[in-house]
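Final report, results section. Input specification for complex C-07:
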Amino acid sequence: MDAFQLLLLVVVVISTCKWKSEATSCVDSDKEKYNLLEGEAFYFIPYDVIEPNDGEFTWFKSSPQSRNISSKETERVYYHGGALFFFDILPTDAGNYTCQEISPTGECYNHHVEICVFNTSFRADEKLTYGEVKNSDGNKEIECPRVVSDTCEALTGNFTWYKDFILLPGEHEAIMWVENAAKHDEGIYTCICTWRHNHKVYNSSGSRRLIFQETAFFSDANILSPTNKVQFADEGSELKLNCSVYCGKNATRKCDASWNINGIPVINIDSNRYNQATNLVIENPSKNTIATSILTIKKVSAKDFEDKFECSVTNFYRGNRATLTLQRRASIIPLVIGGVCVLFFCVFAAMLVKFFAIDLALFFRPYLPLSKHNEDKRIYDAYVVYQMQKKDKATEETLSRFITKILPTVLENKCGYRLFIHGRDDIPGEDRLELVEDCMKQSRRLMVILTPGSESGPEITDQCPASPQTAILGGFDWQVGLHHALIQREMSVILIQLGNTGPQGYTNFPPGLQHLILKSAPLRWPESSRGAAAWNSRFWKRLHSQDQLGSSYSSAVTVGSVRCQGGDGGGGAGCMRRLHGPEGPSGGWDRPHP
Ligand SMILES: *[C@@H]1O[C@H](CO)[C@@H](O)[C@H](O)[C@H]1NC(C)=O
Ligand SMILES: *[C@@H]1O[C@H](CO)[C@@H](O)[C@H](O)[C@H]1NC(C)=O
Ligand SMILES: *[C@@H]1O[C@H](CO)[C@@H](O)[C@H](O)[C@H]1NC(C)=O
Ligand SMILES: *[C@@H]1O[C@H](CO)[C@@H](O)[C@H](O)[C@H]1NC(C)=O
Ligand SMILES: *[C@@H]1O[C@H](CO)[C@@H](O)[C@H](O)[C@H]1NC(C)=O
Ligand SMILES: *[C@@H]1O[C@H](CO)[C@@H](O)[C@H](O)[C@H]1NC(C)=O
Ligand SMILES: *[C@@H]1O[C@H](CO)[C@@H](O)[C@H](O)[C@H]1NC(C)=O
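Structure output:
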């Protein structure tokens, strides 16, 4: 072999290799798949063949049996360039077909298509439909499947439309509209392309199923929850956060609620501390569409109080968000302690007030409006009545001491009162009846001294006292006094009880007196108490406070203790008629004339 021959061999080998590598390096495209009806025609150009009439095309069936496809137009199955034709499809046409394309620029492509054949009893089968039309639009647009509309376009066929295999007259476009679609418009819509080939008419069909969806109304994405910016929580306990959005009516499209923590969606946070559950609800019959996302924090930690929780929602048109921070729940212990303190203080204050009520009343009395007694022109502050007869020795002594010593000492000398006391202030020889009547009229109060046995004497109720003496001891004074106090309401009454009432209580008193006793309980003179006789003892304070005695008195003199201490100018003289002169601290009191 000479050098030339060797060179030629090398060139041949290289060129062969190059051709071989070209032949085996065809690019395979994705396989397409069609389910066809027996008896129809099928026209097909692979989706990635740009120029079906330019370039070199070879079609063959690769399975189940390999077979060359003819390019003769009279064959039942034939190809023309990149287009494959089937007429009167038979079940045996099912199989895998390949088209090898050598483009004008020399690239090689393998296009694959798988054909399945069904007989017409399967025409409503899901496999024979080209997808669903399913949306909430009011007017539904149904597109003829692309492979069928391409057929009609390329081969100048005519469209006819069927609904559930019943002709829809007047529909001859590649797209048909179902206006104001309703539930009864649901069904299988078939478009048939009728085309001519070699003077024969063939049909190619494709179907879609229309599924009715209720028309939707999309509102703004209104966040229903959370409504507050702050959520109270307890550290260590479980917490559920509710993110809830109102999307509209029948508005399930893109109606969504979810939680972000510091801007990161919870679903992207790899942590077993959180759990998110979402839910979409259409309420009936309102059709209100609400999406809810519940974020569960299994155990609230200190970090959670610094995090920003964001409820992020969307509906078909819009988005919205609301942020939430956690705050520790205020402890109720300080509140409870505060409450208990206030309660204690109130109880303490109430006890103080109760204990010192009288002192307080006396203290504040001068600041209160003055009683009408201050303006009247009466001479006496009190007219004292008591009962003297039918007493045992001890009672008599007690009464006597009270009347003659204690009352004048305290009320007249210390406090500056003017009293009219029977047996002391009446002048012998004066007209008894006139005197009583007169002195009563000149007195602001009736001071009744009740003694054990006061109730027993008929003299008390006696209308007509037997003698002036008995009258002093009860009868007439009582009558006149009660008359003034009860009927004319000119006098107020102070009841003072000396000693015990006995087992009968006050039941034996005349009804008028009982009435007075009911209105204000008698003050008990604490005979045995040592400090009772002192002007500032509790008894006298009660006496002042119980009646308006103190008020007239305080206007005349000053307040409380100061007032009484100064009032030493009375001297128990006679009928307590006013004297001229500034003995009292008031400085302006008239002393009774003798
Ligand atoms: C297909 O045609 C090729 C030539 O283009 C031939 O070699 C092959 O044998 C044929 N196959 C069948 C099954 O006829
Ligand atoms: C087509 O080829 C696939 C494998 O690519 C095979 O599973 C299928 O059965 C074939 N179809 C027919 C009708 O032979
Ligand atoms: C369609 O095929 C089924 C079996 O797959 C058969 O029972 C039926 O008779 C066939 N129908 C027609 C119209 O050929
Ligand atoms: C399509 O319709 C036109 C007019 O309506 C008619 O002339 C034509 O023959 C029809 N073509 C086929 C394939 O039926
Ligand atoms: C083809 O379609 C036309 C019009 O839709 C119809 O009248 C005819 O019966 C169909 N032919 C076959 C063989 O299905
Ligand atoms: C929601 O659907 C119902 C029918 O189920 C319809 O009556 C109602 O009008 C629809 N609501 C809106 C807002 O479109
Ligand atoms: C979440 O909030 C919405 C709106 O306030 C309410 O309807 C729903 O019941 C709440 N869900 C839970 C689990 O609390």
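The two ends are 184 Å apart (CA to CA). Residues 10-23, 455-473, 548-594 have pLDDT under 50 and may be disordered. This concludes the modelling results for the funded period.
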